[in-house]
């Protein structure tokens, strides 16, 4: 019974189907085929700054070499891909190409392809020192011999100098610019190009040698002029003169012979200069003595020192009375140097021990003799140092004869 029912149902279904096909005037629906999505996923163009990269599809690699010095960490490549595909990073997006970068292309159908992009720049070969300066002075660069020479002013300490150096772009230099260097001997500077090439420069820095050759002071160490004060006890005679003078004159008594054989000059000359005969060597000044001063640069000149004789017989009370003292000013601070002009040369004081300079507190008793620091060799001017505060009268004394006074206030 069950089998008969199944057969019956199938028969009815076939009948209905045949009826539907054969029914006139009934339009049947048409099925539209679904289109396939694209699987294309290639990078077709890759460029930076209008420079085209090399694209190798077989290895999914892209390479691009940019000009020397191009910064790689902020580039914006222009990228085109297959139709309907997308790319990441996107075209014109800023990318750091310090290391290789992977670009992913996604096709319309969702499939992907990855490209490894390598962007580099050409290594520069330049390795030159273009500028070498110290304290604003320019070195002479010889690019044939690879040497640099520079002369500094007189007195420059060449053991501690910091040159400023300008070199080729992308290169490095050792020692570095502004590094403190001792240039007592020539120094080698090494410039390394971006591509690793090396160039060495030999740098020679010297200080200009001084041409100064002057006698700055000429002090006389004499047995009769050896105490701390002029006058009764006397002092070392310090000759003051222009350093460029070619003659220095001192004065002595008419009969001074043996004493002149025992004078030991203490001489100071220009820095780096030498003098012959040397300082501290006893000389016989009964005749003029010629000294040769040689500068650091080898140039030289001569200075003649002469002791001129005078007769002490004319030094008397009237001489003392006629010798006026004229200070540069009347008020000084303690420790300041006082300069005093005189109306007549007073070199006679150096050998006439009975004549002395004194200073008195006004209306009081004698304090002491002047403390003389130096005097012109002809005795026309002398200097002393203010040691104590007070209001002083200063003058010469000879055989109870007092010369004209001058007053000075030491504050």
Can you characterise this structure?
The protein is 7% helix and 42% strand. With 411 residues, it is mainly β. Strand 11 (140-142) and strand 12 form a beta hairpin. The radius of gyration is 52 Å and the shape is rod-shaped.
State mean pLDDT (0 to 100 scale). 82
Domain module count: 4
CATH architecture of the largest domain: Sandwich
- Shape type: rod-shaped
Could you say which structural class the secondary elements and strand pairing correspond to? mainly beta
Number of discrete helical segments? 2
Rg computed from alpha carbons, rounded to a whole number of angstroms = 52 Å
Count of beta strands: 33
With strands numbered from the N-terminus, the spatial order across the biggest sheet is 20-17-18-29-30-26-24
Largest sheet: 7 strands, mixed
Question: What would the keywords be for this entry?
Answer:
6-stranded mixed sheet, 411 residues, 42% strand, mainly beta, 7-stranded mixed sheet, Immunoglobulin-like, 2 helices
Characterize this entry briefly.
By secondary structure, this protein is mostly beta strands. 7% of the residues lie in helices and 42% in strands. It folds into four domains: 43-121, Immunoglobulin-like (Sandwich), CATH 2.60.40; 129-207, Immunoglobulin-like; 215-313, Immunoglobulin-like; 314-410, Immunoglobulin-like (Sandwich), CATH 2.60.40.
List the helices and strands and how they pair.
Layout: H1 2-22, E1 43-48, E2 51-52, E3 54-56, E4 61-66, E5 78-81, E6 86-88, E7 101-106, E8 112-121, E9 129-134, E10 137-138, E11 140-142, E12 147-152, E13 164-167, E14 172-174, E15 187-192, E16 198-207, E17 215-221, E18 237-240, E19 247-253, E20 264-269, E21 274-276, E22 289-294, E23 300-310, H2 317-322, E24 325-327, E25 331-332, E26 337-342, E27 355-361, E28 366-368, E29 372-376, E30 381-385, E31 390-398, E32 401-402, E33 406-410
Parallel strand pairs: 4-8, 12-16, 18-29, 19-23, 25-33
Antiparallel strand pairs: 1-2, 1-5, 3-4, 6-7, 7-8, 9-10, 9-13, 11-12, 14-15, 15-16, 17-18, 17-20, 21-22, 22-23, 24-26, 26-30, 27-28, 27-31, 29-30, 31-32, 31-33
């Amino acid at each position: 019974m069950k089998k008969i029912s199944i057969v019956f149902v199938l028969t009815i279904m076939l009948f209905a189907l045949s009826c539907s096909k054969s029914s006139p005037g009934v339009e049947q629906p048409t099925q539209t085929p679904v289109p396939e999505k694209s699987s294309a996923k290639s990078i077709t163009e890759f460029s930076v700054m209008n420079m085209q990269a090399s694209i190798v599809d077989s290895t999914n690699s892209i390479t691009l070499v940019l000009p020397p010095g191009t910064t790689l960490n902020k580039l914006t490549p222009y990228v085109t891909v297959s139709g309907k595909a997308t790319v990441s990073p996107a075209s014109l997006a800023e990318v750091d190409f310090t290391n290789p970068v992977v670009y992913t292309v996604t096709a319309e159908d969702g499939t992907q392809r990855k490209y490894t992009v390598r962007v580099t720049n050409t290594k520069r070969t330049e390795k030159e020192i273009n500028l070498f300066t110290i304290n604003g002075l320019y070195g002479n660069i010889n690019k044939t011999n690879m040497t640099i020479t520079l002369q500094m002013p007189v007195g420059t300490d060449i053991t501690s100098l910091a040159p400023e150096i300008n070199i080729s772009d992308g290169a490095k230099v050792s020692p570095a610019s502004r590094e403190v260097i001792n240039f007592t001997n020539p120094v080698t500077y090494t410039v390394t190009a971006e591509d690793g090439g090396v160039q060495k420069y030999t740098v020679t820095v010297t200080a200009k040698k001084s041409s100064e050759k002057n006698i700055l002071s000429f002090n006389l160490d004499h047995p009769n002029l050896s105490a701390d004060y002029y006058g009764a006890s006397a002092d070392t005679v310090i000759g003051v003169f222009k350093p460029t003078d070619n003659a220095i004159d001192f004065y002595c008594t008419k009969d001074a012979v043996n004493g002149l054989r025992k004078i030991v000059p203490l001489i100071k000359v220009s820095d780096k200069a030498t003098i012959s005969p040397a300082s501290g060597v006893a000389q016989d000044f009964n005749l003029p003595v010629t000294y040769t001063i040689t500068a650091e640069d080898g140039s030289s000149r001569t200075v003649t020192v002469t002791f001129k004789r005078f007769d002490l017989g004319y030094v008397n009370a009237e001489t003392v009375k006629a010798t006026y003292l004229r200070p540069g000013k009347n008020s000084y601070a303690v420790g300041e140097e006082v300069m005093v002009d005189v109306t007549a040369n007073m070199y006679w004081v150096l050998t006439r021990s009975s004549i002395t300079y004194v200073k008195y507190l006004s209306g009081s008793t004698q304090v002491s003799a002047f403390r003389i620091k130096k005097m012109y060799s002809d005795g026309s001017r002398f200097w002393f140092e203010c040691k104590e505060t007070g209001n002083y009268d200063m003058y010469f004394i000879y055989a109870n004869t007092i010369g004209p006074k001058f007053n000075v206030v030491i504050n």
